[in-house]
Structure formats: structure tokens, C-alpha cells
Amino acid sequence: MNLAVYGAGGSGREVYDLLQHCPKQRQKWDEIVFIDDTKEEGNLHDSKRMPFSRLKELYTPDNTEVIIAIGEPKQRERLYNEVISSGYIFGNLIHDNSFISDYAKIGSGIVIQEGVIISSDAVINDNVYINHRCMIGHDVVIGSNCQISANVVISGGAHVGETTFIGGMSCVRDHTNIGTHCIVSMGAAVLKDVCDYSIAMGNPARVIRKNENEKVFN
């Protein structure tokens, strides 16, 4: 079985590092390749890099798993649907130095970086990227296609809707609901619910406008 990492930018290079430092993860796959639709065929360090159209010519769905290493939730959602419609399945990539409760539920297409803690009865749905040193409390639910940045704390019973971005060093109060297609800025302290398609920032976090463009990065 091979692993295709969709994304060869910053998040893709972080995934490359994870694979280099976690032999238990690396040995699950015969070959690691990276997908980048913005460039011609080449290499990312010692791995092949190619557009998705080329991957489909060289690697069949029956011997290739995919994960997405891109930080834009809306783009994650689009690529996830494209990969599924092409017949490929998603794998999981979980750093050896992370802790996941035996009673947590983890979907497919999940990336969990170093130092992450996922507590009892938490639910992580499909196609979620959780960056370094995050704390996901008991009974937390994270929807599909989310990007959880480094050093985030999501306290017990909180819900994060699908296709949402949580910025680094932010924290979410217990039993708080963050809607779908939201952006929570870096360092925010979310103490009350955030409705769908909102951008929230500050301490305490306040909604500053609608997330009309659904774009985190310029």
C-alpha cells in the first residue's frame, strides 16, 4: 500500500517530517508520494511530487491511501470530495508521541501531529488535521474538514462544526458550540457559541463579520 499526501506546501512538509520521525507510521506504506496541482512533476525531498491527474495514471485506488495536508478548510472539503469520487480511500497518520483515548472515535483521513491529546469519548470526524500539542477534551466533537492549529485547547463537551478553522493558541470553553464554516483567529478565547459562517477573534472572542469568502489565508 502507498500513501499519497495531498499538499506539498507547509502542511505537507510537516507531514513529511512526521513520517521521517515516526518509523511505526512510515512502515505502514511502501511508498510516499505528494500531490501538488500547482506544479509540474518533481520531488519533495526524496519523495515524488505530481498533480492529482498524474497520480491517477500511476497509482490505482486499490493500492493507494490519501491524506490531505492543506490548511484551508474549504479546500480540504473540495479535495476530499474529489478524491472520494475518484475511488480512493483515506488513511490516517498519527504521530507516535500523541495520546488518543481508547474510547475516542476517529474517522478517516486524519492527521494528528506530535503532542496531541484526545480524551475519552471525543469524536473526530473525517478529514481533520490536528496540529502540534493540541488538547481535545472529553466528549468534544470536531466536524469533518476542519483544521485545528497548534497549541489549541478545546474543552470538554465543546462542538466544532464542519469545515471550520481554529487558529493557533486559541481556547474553547467547555460545552461551547462553534458552527460550520467558521474561522476562529489565533489566540482567541471562545467563551460563548459562534454561529455558522462567522469569523471570531479576541479575548473574549467576538464575531466580527460573516465568513463570506471562506478563505483563511491570503
From TrEMBL:
Domain (PglD N-terminal): residue spans on this chain = 2-83
Q: Which GO terms describe its molecular function?
A: transferase activity
Q: Which keywords annotate this record?
A: Transferase
Site: Increases basicity of active site His. Where?
139
What CDD domains does the database record attribute to this sequence?
A: LbH_AT_putative
Q: Does the keyword Disulfide bond apply?
A: no
Q: Which residues form the active site?
A: 138
Q: Does the keyword Isomerase apply?
A: no
| SUPFAM superfamilies with a match to the protein in the record | Trimeric LpxA-like enzymes
**Residues annotated to bind substrate:** 71
A Pfam family cross-referenced in the UniProt record is PglD_N
Transmembrane segment boundaries? none
Record NCBIfam families: NeuD_NnaD
Entries under PANTHER family matching the protein: ACETYLTRANSFERASE, UDP-N-ACETYLBACILLOSAMINE N-ACETYLTRANSFERASE
This protein's name: Acetyltransferase
